């Protein structure tokens, strides 16, 4: 088995022509949830559960009306006017969670001396804190402090689970940078989409 990033769908491979492909985006998002397993921190289970729950909400909508949900944009547009808009809300929170994770990892990539705890804490302040109540802020604060050292995290990212040769750090950095850049582009696009269409009202 290859190092982790080569075993999951890359955001760089998600089709965005004419809209963000719903199933491909959800598959890549599930890969990001799995990446959080490498942090090996029990408090991060809360973050993962939140991401998984929102992925499930979007997927349920796709399965219910797939013809009207092939892209994230069409999924949101076709749910507008409905009373609950469960998938629209789920996707909004998923995007916030992805933005938080992407921002933290981009900080770590930009500064090779920065530890994960500092990067995740800064990204939380920038991307998620404003949406959380006192209790949730406390949970996330504990999770950030429990991040492993970057050297241990990257050792896990390079490792082959079947004992094969590990990835070269330079190759991993190039792959991770490409993965994060594509994720950031999709998240920014969808957040702009929500803002222009006022789809996030009430959430």
From TrEMBL:
Gene Ontology molecular function: any one: ceramide 1-phosphate binding
Keyword line: Transport
Pfam family, one: GLTP
Domain Glycolipid transfer protein intervals: 20-158
Keyword set includes Transport: yes
InterPro entries assigned: GLTP_sf (IPR036497), Glycolipid_transfer_prot_dom (IPR014830)
Keyword Methyltransferase: no
Gene Ontology CC: cytosol; membrane
Record-linked PANTHER family: GLYCOLIPID TRANSFER PROTEIN-RELATED, PLECKSTRIN HOMOLOGY DOMAIN-CONTAINING FAMILY A MEMBER 8
Name of the featured protein: Glycolipid transfer protein
Species, as recorded: Macrolepiota fuliginosa MF-IS2
Species lineage: Eukaryota, Fungi, Dikarya, Basidiomycota, Agaricomycotina
